[in-house]
């Protein structure tokens, strides 16, 4: 019978905290950047101009339909050879994860916008609004309300996806715990603790999201 | 007539795919005139109405409202979005399904046009909006959201919202078709009041008795063409075309308007 000893992890606490800091910071960066890419992708795919629509759809499908692990490795190893762009592991993984997340955010944002009844933008147009004004004043305020639960959900997935950056030696929580596991010869305790750490952050977040969904359902 | 007319439509054509919904339509509405457009569904009357404020862009012909004229068809350049927006700001439209903005209160709905489109100061827009709400008998509903209103109240707010732009022309697209029968009267009452104030209006409606009372001209459309046109009472009481007679036989053409309780 295996003898569990979690006490041994205490001596690696700074390593874990450090890793957790990188994981959380990384998540913030890729969620924000991802939303920016998502906005471009969504509005691009709704554009009146066909070349822009095609460009946006190519971006969305390229990143949505390939595995994130492959994208990470490709951005770090293949892009420098193809484009002559040398990137640090952190830049490469931030870019890959933001674009990957952005492709999903695009679809969420696009879906939110087209879910708003056409009569709403017609009413705006009939008042004399330009398409931009009716998007800002009429469609988006209603669409954002509908998007928020799905955007939160995707961001939670993004938080977990950051664990993959350890393959490029970015010192996130998973990478640091690999270090701790090798050093202590205690991989079972280490990875159990890491799993608990992810869950401890995400479970409260999911509860908040669920409450938010209920509140939105009431106000509709 | 075209010298004094407020709305002038010439040789208007519109197709959706291979379906030709408007075939060479001509229409004049005098200043202060009220024209009722009637006809079976699919006759093109709603499309014609939507061509007047260019919510639907015609394939050919011309549309003039006031001093602004647009020509369509070969060689004609499509107006850009700003020109279109400016043009639409001078016409008010009321929709079958109200299309109120659900994320705004009644007052905010009515203020939205003046604030966003006319760049009016908030305080002035609020004064104007409250006046318009009072006009349709809903002053006390200013702070409620549309979801809490009845269908008739929603449509009256939608009329107030359109009027807040102080338009020259009002377009009604089956404004009472989505209402419960007992709520139709309060909306018709508001429209009738507008007519008596001299507003130029084009009304797509199935309320034949109402059209007979309020409209001075009546146009009967079928399959994308104007079948019969004339003074409203004359066309309704003595239609000359067989198609008009057949259509009108489905309706009570005279009698009292539905009871109005515009104060509720």
From TrEMBL, chain A:
Membrane topology reported for the UniProt record: Multi-pass membrane protein
This protein's record includes keyword Cell membrane: yes
Span of domain ABC transmembrane type-1: 20-209
Main location: membrane
SUPFAM superfamilies: MetI-like
GO molecular function, one term: transmembrane transporter activity
Protein localization: Cell inner membrane; Cell membrane
Pfam family, one: BPD_transp_1
UniProt-listed GO biological process terms: amino acid transport
Keywords attached to this entry: Amino-acid transport, Cell membrane, Membrane, Transmembrane, Transmembrane helix, Transport
Residue ranges of the TM segments: 20-42, 191-209
Cellular component terms (Gene Ontology): ATP-binding cassette (ABC) transporter complex
Keyword rRNA-binding: no
Matches recorded under NCBIfam families: HEQRo_perm_3TM
Function: Part of the binding-protein-dependent transport system for glutamine; probably responsible for the translocation of the substrate across the membrane.
Family: Belongs to the binding-protein-dependent transport system permease family. HisMQ subfamily.
Name of this protein: Amino acid ABC transporter membrane protein (PAAT family)
């Amino acid at each position: 019978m295996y003898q569990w000893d979690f006490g041994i992890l205490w001596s690696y606490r700074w390593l874990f905290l450090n890793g957790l800091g990188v994981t959380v910071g990384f998540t913030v960066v890729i969620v924000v950047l991802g939303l920016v890419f998502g906005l471009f992708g969504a509005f691009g795919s709704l554009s009146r101009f066909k070349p822009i629509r095609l460009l946006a759809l190519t971006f969305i499908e390229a990143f949505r339909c390939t595995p994130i692990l492959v994208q990470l490795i490709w951005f770090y190893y293949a892009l420098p050879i193809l484009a002559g762009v040398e990137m640090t592991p952190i830049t490469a993984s931030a870019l890959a994860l933001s674009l990957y997340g952005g492709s999903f955010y695009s679809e969420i944002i696009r879906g939110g916008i087209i879910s708003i009844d056409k009569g709403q933008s017609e009413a705006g147009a009939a008042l004399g609004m330009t398409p931009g004004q009716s998007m800002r004043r009429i469609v988006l305020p209603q669409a954002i309300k509908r998007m928020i639960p799905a955007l939160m959900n995707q961001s939670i997935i993004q938080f977990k996806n950051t664990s993959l950056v350890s393959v490029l030696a970015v010192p996130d929580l998973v990478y640091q715990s690999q270090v701790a596991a090798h050093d202590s010869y205690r991989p079972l305790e280490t990875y159990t603790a890491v799993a608990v750490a992810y869950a401890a952050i995400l479970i409260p977040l999911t509860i908040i999201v669920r409450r938010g969904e209920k509140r939105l359902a009431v106000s509709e | 007539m075209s010298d004094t007319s407020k709305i002038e439509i010439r040789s208007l054509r519109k197709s959706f795919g291979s379906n030709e919904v408007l075939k060479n339509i001509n229409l004049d509405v005098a200043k202060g005139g009220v024209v009722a457009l009637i006809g079976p569904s699919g006759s093109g009357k709603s499309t014609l109405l939507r061509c007047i404020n260019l919510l639907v862009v015609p394939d050919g012909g011309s549309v003039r409202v006031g001093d602004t004229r647009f020509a369509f068809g070969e060689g004609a350049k499509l107006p850009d979005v700003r020109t279109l927006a400016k043009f639409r700001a001078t016409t008010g439209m009321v929709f079958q399904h109200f299309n109120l903005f659900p994320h705004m209160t009644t007052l905010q709905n009515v203020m939205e046009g003046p604030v966003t489109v006319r760049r009016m100061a908030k305080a002035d827009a609020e004064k104007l909006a409250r006046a318009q709400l009072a006009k349709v008998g809903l002053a006390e509903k200013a702070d409620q959201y549309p979801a809490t209103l009845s269908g008739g109240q929603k449509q009256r707010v939608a009329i107030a919202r359109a009027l807040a732009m102080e338009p020259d022309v009002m377009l009604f697209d089956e404004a009472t078709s989505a209402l419960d029968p007992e709520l139709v009267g309060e909306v018709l009452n508001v429209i009738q009041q507008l007519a008596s104030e001299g507003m130029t209006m084009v009304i797509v409606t199935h309320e034949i008795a109402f059209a007979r009372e309020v409209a001075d001209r009546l146009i009967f459309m079928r399959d994308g063409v104007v079948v019969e046109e004339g003074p409203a009472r004359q066309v309704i009481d003595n239609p000359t075309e067989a198609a008009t007679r057949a259509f009108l036989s489905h309706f009570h053409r005279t009698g009292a308007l539905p009871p109005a309780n515009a104060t509720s």
